Structure formats: C-alpha cells, structure tokens
Backbone:
C-alpha cells in the first residue's frame, strides 16, 4: 500500500540521510501525518474530482430551471362609444372615449411530463456521486495516515536495530584485534583467527544491510510526507 501511494508522487528528496550509528531525531508523528495529507497528490486529485461533481450537479439543476419561463403580455387600447338617450321628447346623443389596459402573467413549463422523473433521478445521482467521492477522500486520508504511521514505526525500529548491529560490529572488532595479537604470539592458530574474522565480516555485512533498509525506509517515508522528516542539524 505504501509503494502504491508513492507512485503517485514526485521524487523530490528534502534531506540526505547520514548514518553514523547515531539515533536519528524524527519530527513528531502528527506533524508528518499533517504534511502527508497536505502534500498528497491523490488527495489533490480527489478534491478536483469532488469540485467537478459539484459543478455537474449544478448543471443538472440549471437544466431543470431552464425548463421554466415567466411569460406575460399586455395590451393597450382606446375606443369610442356612442349612446342615445331618450328623455321624453328630447333625444340625447352621448359620445364617450374609453382607454383599456389588458395584461396577463404566468409560468410556462417546457419539460415534457415523461422527462420529469428522469431529471430528478439525474440530480439525485449527481448528489450521490458527490457523497461517494467525499467518502472516497476520507478513505484515502485514512490510508495515507496508516502508511505514515507504519513507515514511522519501521524507521524507528530500524534505527534501534542499527544501533544494535553497530555495537555488535564494535565487539567483533575488539575480538578481531585481540585474535590477531593471539595469533602473533602463538596463543591461537590461523584457523581460530579466521573464524573470528568470518564472524566480524558477517556482523559488518548485517550492519550494512540494516543501513540499506533504513535508508530505503527513510526516503520512502520522506517521499510520502512530501517534506523533511528529521530535525535539521544546526550549523
């Protein structure tokens, strides 16, 4: 899982590991986790995907609104009306002018009834996709956090292992020097001396293997975190 995550990043090493058999001072675990979450290209991709889905959801809603339209009309007119009034022997003509304004307003719905259900389903599906991608983001965050913790603990263990291997080499170095003196004065023979040399070389090889493992673990964790992981030495 750690290797899979690292393949998404760029190889940019912030520090060089110098192994001199001394204990390294790692930055606090939470600091490394926060840095890994902030610098993760996978999370950046996921954020972009969530933003894309949110925009798609807005587009679906806007399509729904585009099927609605406000409509209205108005008419203005002037008309004349002639009326005759018979009042006894007198016949009266009355001419009146009338101005009238007609108007109406409403909402027009252009979406066919058969498509209403489909449109609602698309909007709901877009919202569900956003929820899924948000949950996916949390899953990625948990995976990154677990990988940082595992890498952190592995590096601490290798650091302790390195100290033990270095101490073993020092012990065999003393034995080798002593065996050489004993061989020179005839206390032991060449066969016994060679056995001590073989044990010393084996311990030395174990030390170098541990250094190699520790260097690999160091750079993998640094690449995952995206920044330095140990305290910088003050000049």
Residues:
């Amino acid at each position: 899982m750690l290797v899979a995550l690292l393949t998404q990043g760029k190889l940019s090493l912030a520090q060089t590991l110098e192994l001199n058999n001394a204990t390294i001072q790692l930055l606090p675990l939470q600091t490394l986790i926060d840095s890994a979450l902030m610098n993760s290209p996978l999370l950046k991709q996921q954020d972009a995907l969530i933003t894309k889905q949110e925009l798609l959801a807005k587009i679906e809603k806007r399509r729904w609104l585009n099927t609605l339209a406000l409509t209205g009309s108005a008419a203005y007119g002037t008309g004349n009306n002639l009326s005759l009034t018979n009042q006894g022997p007198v016949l009266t003509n009355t001419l009146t002018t009338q101005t009238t304004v007609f108007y109406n307003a409403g909402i027009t719905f252009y979406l066919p009834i058969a498509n209403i259900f489909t449109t609602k389903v698309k909007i709901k599906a877009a919202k569900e996709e956003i929820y899924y991608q948000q949950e996916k983001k949390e899953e990625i965050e948990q995976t990154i956090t677990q990988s940082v913790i595992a890498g952190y603990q592995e590096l601490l263990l290798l650091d302790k292992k390195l100290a033990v291997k270095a101490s073993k080499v020092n012990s065999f170095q003393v034995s080798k020097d002593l065996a050489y003196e004993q061989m020179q004065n005839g206390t032991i023979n060449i066969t016994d001396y060679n056995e001590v040399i073989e044990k010393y070389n084996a311990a030395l090889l174990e030390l170098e293997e541990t250094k190699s493992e520790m260097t690999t673990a160091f750079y993998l964790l640094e690449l995952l975190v995206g920044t330095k992981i140990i305290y910088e030495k003050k000049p």
